[in-house]
């Protein structure tokens, strides 16, 4: 809590992590009926977030091919490039990218899979071990 004028305590706004913001932006886009502008995204994820921050996150997601954009007048309309499975995969990659020992993370993940999920993963990897 911070003190402001007249000694009143104001709650301190929690700073969101970049990955959390990306997930919120992607979730908003995924829930949209079609392409939307950045102001629409800003409104959906919280008015306390600056428009420029939303644009930065959208641009970063565009560089990761997680969103697409199309020119509409003088601005852009943004869309999610992937469905629910693609968004989950993006979150999984973010976790993996945040760890130093990728092999250990993958090994831990695979050993925790159910037998059915392990068979599915083996099927996806195929006989050569590549997707």
UniProtKB/TrEMBL annotation:
| Family annotation (InterPro entries) | BlaI_family, WH-like_DNA-bd_sf, WH_DNA-bd_sf
Transmembrane segments in this chain: where?
Answer: none
Keywords, comma-separated and alphabetical: DNA-binding, Transcription, Transcription regulation
Keyword check for Manganese: no
Pfam families reported for this sequence: Penicillinase_R
Q: Does the keyword Acyltransferase apply?
A: no
Family label: Belongs to the BlaI transcriptional regulatory family.
Protein name per the record? BlaI/MecI/CopY family transcriptional regulator
- Print the organism lineage: Bacteria, Bacillati, Actinomycetota, Actinomycetes, Kitasatosporales
């Amino acid at each position: 809590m911070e003190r402001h004028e007249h000694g009143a305590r104001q709650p301190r706004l929690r700073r969101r992590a970049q990955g959390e913001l990306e997930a919120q932006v992607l979730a908003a886009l995924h829930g949209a009926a079609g392409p939307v502008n950045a102001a629409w995204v800003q409104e959906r994820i919280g008015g306390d977030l600056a428009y420029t921050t939303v644009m930065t996150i959208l641009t970063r997601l565009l560089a990761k091919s997680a969103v697409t954009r199309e020119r509409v007048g003088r601005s852009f309309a943004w869309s999610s490039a992937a469905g629910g499975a693609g968004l989950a995969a993006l979150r999984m990659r973010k976790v993996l990218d945040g760890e130093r020992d990728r092999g250990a993370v993958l090994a831990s993940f695979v050993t925790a899979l159910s037998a059915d999920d392990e068979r599915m993963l083996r099927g996806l990897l195929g006989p050569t071990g590549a997707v």
